[in-house]
Amino acid sequence: MVPVIAIDRAAPRPLHRQLYEGLRVSITDGTLRAGQRLPSSRGLASELGLSRITVLNAYAQLLAEGYLQSRIGSGTVVCRSLPDQAGVWNPQAGNGVRSRSARRRLSQRARLLDPVSLTHAAFGRNPESARSGAFVLGQVALSDFPFQLWKGLLTRRARATCTESLDYGDNVGSRALREEIASYLRTARATRCQADQIMIVSGSQQALEIATRVLLDPGDGVWMEEPGYRFARNIFRVHGCRIVPVRVDREGLDVHHGIKRYRAARAALVTPSHQYPTGVTMSASRRFQLLEWAERSGAWIIEDDYDSEYRFDSMPVGCLQGLDQAARVIYVGTFSKVLFPSLRLGYLVIPPDLMERFIAVRLAMDIAPPAFQQAVLADFIREGHFSRHLRRMRLLYAQRRSALVESIRNEFGDEAEITGEQAGMHLSLTLRGISDRHLAELAGQQNLWLAPLSYSYIEKNRRQGFILGFGSTSAEEIPAAVRKLRALVDSARRVSSVKPQLVAS
């Protein structure tokens, strides 16, 4: 007997394909066992109301793939060399995951990572709506990007494409793009670099991954800002590094605290121009202290300069790398925050004597970055569109920042502490008497995207609050969104004050 196989004559898939897939599933899930005989092609065609050609085509495919075997006098049977599938395949568990899950071992490296770090458990939103709503973190004003201009550059480059462009590109990225980036960084960020020191990567996350592979061994200590960028922790964890939380105050990373905690650390990851998530700027004295520590101890500094282009009340602050006299700083930049996230282009500025090692690691990972978007971006920068776009966005984000700060002060007054509003596309809001993670879950039901501040801490002394992005939320939407947040906070506090009474009764 052949199990029931659903044939849908209105479906776009050919009938022989539907029959083939139905029989294959019956074999793999153990319904049809090894050695079991199948009906003749005529018999099955008659039973299912199909043409014999349809059945023959399905059988032929299964025979070719080794699921069936055919012998003269024995008809067509399920291949006898297939293992007994009974008890192995459970289509009801995890969409076909084998039930012998105890044998599905993962690496220690994979088990160190939070498997739901980008879904609702991380930010109080479900995956389907995780990039919508007010205060989305890390999102830009996509509707204000010069899309038609970009599309024109894409079209022009596509028309100029030749067969040579289909080959592997430069391992460190397009020479033309690296020249443009080097020129921009020297002017706008006060870096000391040439094009030969730049490596194009798929974003700051890959930049950190490459730098970690080159600079650090398992067991090496790494200073991380506390609070700090939580997704960088995953990189250090999977490489077996010892993460050393170093407190951040109004002057940025407290270097003396880091030395006291672990002087022998091999690296420090810092965001000096706009600390994530507090938004403070590292003072000049702290910068020189950090550079002095790195030079004396032979340590490395990884500078993540993720959104320094947007500074509202003063000129942009020069980068740490430009002060480095001992070539201890690895500089990381990205276009995700200044153009659009799906571009997936960032860069590293690497000391010249380390370039060969960085290239060797790059070759082991993905050979080279894709070439086409690099060419378009080089055109975008060279023709002046990039600088004009930055000027427009700086004004737009300044308006949104001001609207958010004013709304928070109107709704919360002195009970809310705001930090980081001088630059970037987010600010931090600290509140007392709340559970930011619980509130983030509730906010998701009201189309608010709240990133809990407490997730940015490693140690137990965690401040409660939210990291509010304003890049993709218009100034007109902000007041109503802040009022929603105020109502949520009030409601949560009322519930919290009632709970002890309910328990006592």
Name the features:
Aspartate Aminotransferase, domain 2; 12% strand; Arc Repressor Mutant, subunit A; 4-stranded antiparallel beta sheet; 505 residues; 14 strands; globular; disordered C terminus; alpha/beta; Aspartate Aminotransferase, domain 1; 8-stranded mixed beta sheet
Task: Provide a descriptive summary of the structure in words.
- This protein is of the alpha/beta class and 505 residues long.
- The chain folds into three domains: 1-105, Winged helix-like DNA-binding domain superfamily/Winged helix DNA-binding domain (Arc Repressor Mutant, subunit A), CATH 1.10.10; 120-140 and 388-504, Aspartate Aminotransferase, domain 1 (Alpha-Beta Complex), CATH 3.90.1150; 147-383, Aspartate Aminotransferase, domain 2, CATH 3.40.640.
- The protein contains 16 helices and 14 strands.
- The strands form three sheets. An eight-stranded mixed beta sheet has the order 3-10-9-8-7-4-5-6, with helices on both faces. Strands 11-12-14-13 form a four-stranded antiparallel beta sheet, covered by helices on one side.
- Helix 11 (284-297) links the parallel strand 7 (267-270) and strand 8 (300-304).
- The longest helix is centred in the last third of the chain and has 28 residues, at 385-412.
- It is globular and about 90 Å long.
- Residues 86-96, 117-130 and 500-505 have low confidence and may be disordered.
